[in-house]
Hints:
It contains 9 helices and 4 strands. It is α+β, with helices and mostly antiparallel strands.
Amino acid sequence: MSRQPRQQSVTNVYHVIQRGINRTLIFFEDADRRMFLEMLKSQVCDSFEVYCYCLMDNHIHLIVKSGQLSFYIHRILTSYAIWFNRKYERGGYVFQNRFRSEVIEEEGYLLRCLRYVLQNPLKAGVCRRVSVYAWSSYRAYYGAEDSFVATGFLSLFFEGEEDFRAFVAEEEAGTFMDIGCRLKDCEVREVLKEMLEGRAFEVLDRVEQKQILKKLKQDERIGQRQLARITGIDLNMIRRL
């Protein structure tokens, strides 16, 4: 089947996702993340602006503005893959197929998508607050010096730093492009049923419940809100696991 043409944004603003091949890690250590950001920064120009980024262990999120999206993203990913393979003395693909993108053509969607990207580490249970995650653009928006992230657009929507922080802290429950297909609730219940081997989740002690939830959280097809909804366990507790 031939590739479908990439949808073009009338605003030239896009949400971009790329993940490691077979969901493998693309960042083994902080030095890898720093190198990727240097490569991202090196491409910033009048034709390629970065509004937001978030680097997870096996995938990346970007919000960028460019009329030459494929040219710049391909250059960044190719450069990083070559560097990564040399560093770790490996061969083959680093990333899964071509990158995915969705158009952003409404101001409201831009802001909610930005919040979604910044909340990725929180929802993955990597951190307890968006502000403490070191590998997103969150800290670049107010007061950061020598940042390559475009921040001027924020003044169009927020009265200042406090207003922005409050917005990002709000729970984002919208639907956005994600790294893979999510399981339906009924499918998650089947996975849980197999793990329980005939027992009821409610009768397990808290330690065993946490062990099962930790295992389920490792499956990228299962959302944390989904687990809270299905098991009745508080979402904040699931996030802390």
